[in-house]
Recover the amino acids of this structure.
């Protein structure tokens, strides 16, 4: 499944002129813009509604109150309670720690292994690589039952390691990185080899500098995946002080009864970290996600 | 870590405060702040399932505990029922979880205590002033498994009957002292409900139609019904079960109670006057008190009505269990047991605020407790409370209760006849019985 | 799922591999390579291979979460699983979810990508609103949607009533919550497919449209005869990835329709597995169920691969 196609650079200049030629806004073009804008707005409704509710006082947010988008009395009460309870902040920190461990380890281990498979020959290589690539087919969710038992035997339940290590097993990343390394010409390394550089050095100073974008792609994809992982952290993070954000929000009963303003404040705060990251690095994230997604 | 317990007589009462805190939606606010203030001290991690309004009472007690002992308490409330017990078991299985957790006594066996919980030593609890004779014998007995003490009982709680005095007075179903008329038999009680329904224009009472198990077990036990489980089958008295289910069917059919109402809806019906009575757990008293303070609600509570010759009711007991630890310092363990003992000895507050009947006899026998309202009016529940059947898939929020409740929701909803429901219940129970027992 | 990698945005052209045939440095066969692959392989072995073996073993035992001693019970779990109607119902629910969710997720992803590709001046805004939900944790998504789905006073029923479209639906608050979960899922994860399509669209060189422009073809003709055929491979990929993702449905269903909060009798398969193992303690039985799921997903992947490779030929 080659996902197509020549890369843009070659044809960069030509389309511009064509585009300019048709630069005037046609009725069809206006319609496209209108439809796109309308749909985008529709897609934002859940966010906006959560945001609106979160700034209402609890009495105004509760069911049975008429629907209105702008709070009559702007209130930060929901947020205040959340910060006072403090567990939301703990969960966010836990998510950051776990996702960082997962991302760093995934990158480190997969880069090492991919380099090994791409550049080095050792006994049993084909078999090991075959077994790892076959692992791409295994849905991680189908393994949760025995995996919990393994992690429990290792005394890793309710620890950062127990949360993170099983998520590091991402054979697809090895596959992607090896493909990329395979495509890097060996000429660069040969000089270095003659200089007597060892493989770690070659990897560090020749291969990695050429691999920036693919590493970013793998890293971003891994980080988002880990940040939003739910099932595994649900199983292995039982202690609220070790829970990640998605699990904490999902299973710890918040206040008493249904306090929607507070609830939506939690939702807004829960959505915020990656939303901010996304807005700041939109370009890279879009490329990263599409890249890893397309290259599977 | 020794801390001389104060005598039971001089306990503080801050429960109304707790009630209004809950209403204001302050949640666990104070708790988080307190745990930070005492950072660096011994910490006890407690998990509970008190997502209802009694949770606020517990939070207030925790604050007092920390202030008094200097032990930092990290309490977490999980969603009631299955989510909580799943977390408890998985955490205990992992061995790095809570120091202490609440659990229903009826669930103790199903938690596989001999592999997943740590036993208390009798001398260990004696150090903090607890003695076996301080608890009702039948409750104390349920705290043991495989001859070891795995639970310390905090309370007994049960389904009781709250009534709105204003409405009931209009309906003419109050005694001169403004207590609810005592009725005998289903018909008499239905007449009472009809009178109340006349006044409210909507319902007589509300029952949690999603938790039909509780009513079923209460009314089945009022007829001396037994449910005995064997290796590959069970004995259920069809006629008595049918009689109990029939009460639900007729009550909903005649509109004396709503066809669909969960716990929150029941309470709301009671507060807004669409029902003059509500048959829910005693713990809702916190909520009704808060409502009374805010908007006025003249209410009291009495025992389960006598349908079949007595006032037996379904109930259970909250207790403290110790999940298994991979490693546990003596200091932390002592602080944990000190916590459990402190809560039990201070359970007057728990009773006053949450409507529960404390398990600790020195508390219930105290003058102060016996004067509590409305607790005094339903003090008989302790003798009338019926625990769920003893089998591994039974107990509060366990599968038997869930499956039966599922069927009975159809009876309340009018989709299922009592006969169909009984068949369905029996089929589902057979499936449960045939499951291999994963516990022993 | 072996696919030719095209690194998304490889090193600049200058650094592109000139060709694969460059003289290779002769590889020395040594153990050095093993050290490179060892760390990953170790983690892989402990957290993937070993659980697989262990799960298979447990499926023949009465292994319990309580940690009591394990005994061999032969094929009892397997026999029970194959006769377990609830297990098959839940497998059907998972399949039904996949059937319901895949078409809208793929089609909307394509439509939105086509729009965003045309409406380039709003690119940033469109990418934000279409893709942002994908980076939101699932529990936040379900919190928001549960709030919108409230039957009395929820946002959705409010507007449905206002526009005369009913407004008395129960959404997730009923026994059959599947439709509501699908809607939420479409909102949440459509962005991923949208991005894949958008990325693919951006690699179509504009020259391919030139001839059509000269012929005066309208946009529909161009879409039909140029764009869509060029996107065929992407579409296959999107469908494959989407089906695999949908077959793993658990999170949002568990959080919205069956976390034990309500009386929903319906399960999806992973949830049934979770309930058997972690709520019901029956690790042995749940392990047998895992293998059924595993084989099921493998079968579907295999069928897809077959269909796929035929297309590639």
């Amino acid at each position: 499944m080659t996902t197509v196609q020549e890369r843009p650079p070659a044809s960069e200049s030509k389309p511009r002129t064509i585009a300019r030629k048709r630069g005037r806004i046609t009725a069809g073009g206006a319609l496209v813009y209108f439809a796109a804008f309308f749909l985008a707005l529709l897609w934002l409704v859940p966010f906006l509604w959560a945001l609106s509710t979160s700034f209402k006082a609890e009495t105004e947010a509760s069911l049975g109150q008429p629907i209105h988008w702008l709070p009559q009395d702007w209130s930060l009460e929901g947020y205040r309670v959340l910060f006072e309870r403090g567990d939301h902040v703990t969960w966010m920190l836990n998510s950051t720690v776990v996702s960082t461990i997962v991302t760093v380890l995934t990158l480190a281990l997969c880069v090492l292994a991919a380099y090994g498979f791409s550049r080095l020959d050792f006994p049993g290589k084909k078999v090991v690589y075959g077994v790892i690539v076959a692992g791409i087919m295994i849905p991680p969710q189908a393994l949760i039952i025995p995996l919990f038992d393994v992690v429990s035997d290792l005394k890793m339940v309710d620890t950062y390691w127990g949360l993170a290590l099983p998520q590091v097993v991402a054979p697809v990343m090895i596959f992607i990185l090896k493909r990329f390394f395979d495509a890097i010409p060996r000429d660069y390394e040969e000089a270095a080899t003659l200089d007597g550089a060892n493989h770690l050095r070659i990897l560090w100073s020749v291969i990695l500098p050429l691999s920036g974008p693919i590493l970013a792609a793998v890293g971003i994809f891994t980080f988002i995946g880990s940040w939003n992982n739910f099932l595994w952290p649900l199983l292995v993070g039982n202690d609220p002080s070790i829970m990640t954000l998605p699990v904490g929000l999902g299973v710890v009963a918040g206040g008493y009864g249904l306090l929607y303003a507070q609830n939506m404040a939690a939702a807004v705060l829960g959505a915020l970290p990656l939303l901010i990251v996304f807005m700041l690095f939109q370009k890279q994230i879009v490329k990263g996600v599409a890249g890893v997604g397309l290259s599977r | 870590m020794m801390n001389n317990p104060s005598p039971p007589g001089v306990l503080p009462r801050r429960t109304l405060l707790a009630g209004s805190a809950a209403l204001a939606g302050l949640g666990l606010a104070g708790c988080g702040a307190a745990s930070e203030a005492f950072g660096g001290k011994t910490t006890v991690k407690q998990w509970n399932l008190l997502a209802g309004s009694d949770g606020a009472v517990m939070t207030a007690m925790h604050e007092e505990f920390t202030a008094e002992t200097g032990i930092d308490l990290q309490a977490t409330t999980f969603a009631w029922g299955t989510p909580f017990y799943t977390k408890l078991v998985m955490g205990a299985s992992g061995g790095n979880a809570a120091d202490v957790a609440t659990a229903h006594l009826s669930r103790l066996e199903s938690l596989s205590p001999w592999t997943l919980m740590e036993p208390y030593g009798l001398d260990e609890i004696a150090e903090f002033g607890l003695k076996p004779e301080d608890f009702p014998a039948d409750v104390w007995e349920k705290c043991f498994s495989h001859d070891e003490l795995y639970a310390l009982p905090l309370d007994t709680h049960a389904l009781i009957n709250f009534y709105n005095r204003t409405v009931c007075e209009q309906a003419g179903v109050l005694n001169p002292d403004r207590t609810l008329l005592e009725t005998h038999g289903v018909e008499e009680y239905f007449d009472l409900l009809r009178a109340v329904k006349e006044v409210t224009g909507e319902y007589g009472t509300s029952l949690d139609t999603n938790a039909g198990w509780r009513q079923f077990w209460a009314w089945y036990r009022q007829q001396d019904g037994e449910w005995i489980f064997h290796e590959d089958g069970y004995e259920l008295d069809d006629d008595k079960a049918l009689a109990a289910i029939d009460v639900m069917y007729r009550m909903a059919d005649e509109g004396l109670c709503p066809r669909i109402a969960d716990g929150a809806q029941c309470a709301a019906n009671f507060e807004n006057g669409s029902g003059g009575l509500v048959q829910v757990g005693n713990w809702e008293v916190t909520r009704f008190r808060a409502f009374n303070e805010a908007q006025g609600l003249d209410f009291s509570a009495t025992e389960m009505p006598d349908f079949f010759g007595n006032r037996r009711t379904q109930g259970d007991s909250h207790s403290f269990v110790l999940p298994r630890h991979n490693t546990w310092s003596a200091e932390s363990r002592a602080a944990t047991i000190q916590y459990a003992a402190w809560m039990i000895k201070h359970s007057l507050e728990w009773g006053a605020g949450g409507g529960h009947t404390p398990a600790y006899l020195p508390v219930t026998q105290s003058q102060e407790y016996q004067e509590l309202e409305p607790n005094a009016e339903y003090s008989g529940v302790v003798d009338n409370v019926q625990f769920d059947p003893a089998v591994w898939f039974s107990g509060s929020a366990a599968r038997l209760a869930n499956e039966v409740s599922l069927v009975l929701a159809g009876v309340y909803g009018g989709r299922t006849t009592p006969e169909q429901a009984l068949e369905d219940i029996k089929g589902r129970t057979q499936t449960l019985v045939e499951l291999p027992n994963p516990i022993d | 799922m072996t696919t030719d990698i095209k690194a998304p945005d490889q090193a600049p052209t200058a650094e592109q591999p000139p060709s694969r045939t460059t003289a290779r440095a002769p590889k020395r066969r040594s153990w050095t390579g093993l050290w490179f692959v060892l760390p990953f392989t170790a983690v892989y072995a402990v957290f993937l291979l070993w659980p697989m073996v262990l799960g298979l073993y447990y499926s023949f035992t009465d292994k319990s979460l309580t940690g009591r001693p394990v005994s061999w019970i032969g094929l009892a779990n397997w026999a029970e699983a194959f006769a377990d109607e609830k297990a098959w119902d839940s497998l059907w629910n998972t399949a039904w979810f996949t059937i319901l969710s895949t078409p809208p997720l793929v089609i909307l992803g394509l439509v939105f990508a086509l729009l965003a590709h045309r409406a380039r001046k709003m690119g940033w805004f469109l990418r934000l609103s279409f893709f942002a939900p994908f980076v939101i944790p699932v529990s936040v998504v379900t919190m928001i949607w549960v709030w919108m789905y409230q039957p009395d006073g929820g946002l959705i029923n409010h507007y449905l009533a206002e526009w005369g479209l009913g407004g008395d639906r129960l959404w997730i608050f009923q026994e059959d919550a599947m439709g509501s979960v699908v809607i939420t899922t479409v909102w949440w994860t459509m962005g991923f497919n949208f991005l894949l399509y958008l990325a693919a669209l951006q690699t179509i060189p504009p020259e391919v449209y030139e001839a059509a422009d000269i012929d005066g073809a309208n946009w529909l003709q161009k879409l039909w005869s140029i764009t869509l055929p060029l996107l065929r491979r992407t579409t296959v990929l999107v469908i494959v990835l989407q089906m695999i993702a949908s077959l793993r449905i658990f999170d949002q269903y568990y959080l919205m329709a069956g976390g034990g909060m309500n009386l929903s009798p319906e399960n999806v398969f992973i949830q049934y597995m979770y309930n058997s193992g972690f709520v019901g303690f029956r690790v042995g039985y749940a392990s047998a169920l895992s293998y059924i799921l595993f084989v099921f997903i493998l079968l579907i992947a295999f069928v897809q691969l077959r269909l796929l490779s035929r297309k590639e030929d």
In short: The interface with chain B takes residues 62, 64-68, 73, 76, 259-263, 265, 278-282, 285 of chain C (CB under 8 Å). Confidence is low (pLDDT under 50) at residues 1-26, 259-263 of chain C. Residues 41-312 of chain C form a domain with the MetI-like fold fold (CATH 1.10.3720.10). Chain C has 13 helices and no strands.
